[in-house]
Write the structure tokens for this entry.
Amino acid sequence: MELGSNFSEKAKHDYKLVKLAIKGDQSAFAELLGRYRDAIYFMLLKMVNNKSDAEDLTIEAFGKAFKNIQQYSPNFAFSTWLFKIASNNCIDFLRKKKANLVSLDSPSDDKDPEYDTGIPLKASVLDPEEKLIKKQMKRLMRTVVKKLKPRYRTLIELRYFKEYSYEEIAEKLELPIGTVKAQLFRARELLFHTLKNTGDKI
């Protein structure tokens, strides 16, 4: 199935990248990430109002999109599909964050429309398909992570490959948690910068 003639040239180029990505072309994944990373990040930043959370959610959004890229339908632009995945994932994050403030076992009269989306909270245990998120992101990111300075490479590996919490990273590296967060933010910036500028070489 091909995109209709009413789609923009940008959407048509995206679709070409999607078809390459489905075949396992890592440069196509990197280019898609580079084209939309900033737009996705700033959209999420407006939703969560926290730079660290927005960076984490950006990575998660691309991870889920890349994991499910075979399910993309050219009935609409790739960007529309990607932004929907990012916004839904963010809404789920906000719901879980709010749930941590109230008892999950007791009924709540809070019907805040911002969170009343009809999306059920997911179980904490990942199903087999969701576990593929890390596998695809590892293939993409490990290609460029090795280009980072050792301390930044270690932070990325601990946070995203081994899924350590900020507290666990601080304890393992014997660093203040504030330092860990600051250096991890810088590490993510360097990682995305490298992906955007060397995607065609991956």
Notes: DSSP finds eight helices and no strands in the chain. The helical segments are 9-22, 26-48, 51-67, 78-99, 132-145, 150-161, 166-173, 177-198. Residues 26-48 form the longest helix (23 residues). The mean pLDDT is 75.
